[in-house]
Amino acid sequence: MEIRQMQYLIAAIETKSLNKAAEILYTTQPNVSKVIRNLETELDAEIFVRSNKGIRLTPFGENLYEYAKNIVKNAEMINILARNALYQKLKIASYPSNMIARHISDFYMDKKDETLHIEFQEGTAEEVISLVSQSQSRIGIIYLAKKQEGILKRILEAKNLKFTQLRECELCLYVGPKNPYYNKRSIDFEELTKLRFVQRNKDYFSMIDHLDNFSLGVVRTEQLKHMVHTNSDHCFLDMLLYTDLCSIGLDFMKSNYKQYDIKTLPVNGCEKCLLVGYVTDKSIELEEYEKEYIESLGTLFQ
């Protein structure tokens, strides 16, 4: 039995004609008929009832059709796996960041390796951890409040994962040209209650929920006016660029990676309260190109 026989059989069934099957297979009708006859001989069972009106499936043929589709589909998947085996896969997940996305572009251009295949996903810290835990990503870049480090380690330990710190960062306010604070150089915690916010979707590690700790009780999360929540990067950026909304985030952006007219205002009196790092699986030895990427990531966050 051959894959080609299954392909010819499926074409004949779905077109309900040996002539039409020959057309889509770029062969001749006698050849299609011969291949299917040989299959019937090999199986010692009739697949089609032939008449002057055309072909009609036998009950055996109807059952065979479903198995034939699975055989062809699985054969295609095996071919895809074989082709993918030729590539070096760099599977990364990260918190949403233009800088990290741009850094991956630079890494690709620096390597220019035809065998390097990059898979990049973005999500919340919980989503990134889940992707690494399920082996859908091999390196997961996250940030969280320093106060949550102990909880993070316990969660990762249960999943046989580990967190490697890259940098400690401060809190900042992202503002666009239409925000009244655009021309200011910094902001006090008390002033945050006067502003309106756009925020990405929250999860357990969302730093916005720890604002009362960061501000030592000066301002509470529920005092902030959250106008828009979104998981869309386009919506998030457009809200900052074209409205008076602002957002609280990570105060770290290399100047050569800045792409938009969005300013970062340091929050007065805020210490380095955030940790940035990456999550990996303890049981998996990273490949050489993955180690190279982590090294370049470390350089980025120096």
From TrEMBL:
* Tree of life domain: Bacteria
Q: Which GO terms describe its molecular function?
A: DNA-binding transcription factor activity; transcription cis-regulatory region binding
Which InterPro entries does the record match to this protein? Answer: LysR_HTH_N, WH-like_DNA-bd_sf, WH_DNA-bd_sf
State if Transcription regulation is listed as a keyword: yes
Where would I find the HTH lysR-type domain in this sequence? Answer: 1-58
Q: Which family does it belong to?
A: Belongs to the LysR transcriptional regulatory family.
Annotated protein name in UniProt: LysR family transcriptional regulator
The organism of origin for this protein: Candidatus Galacturonatibacter soehngenii
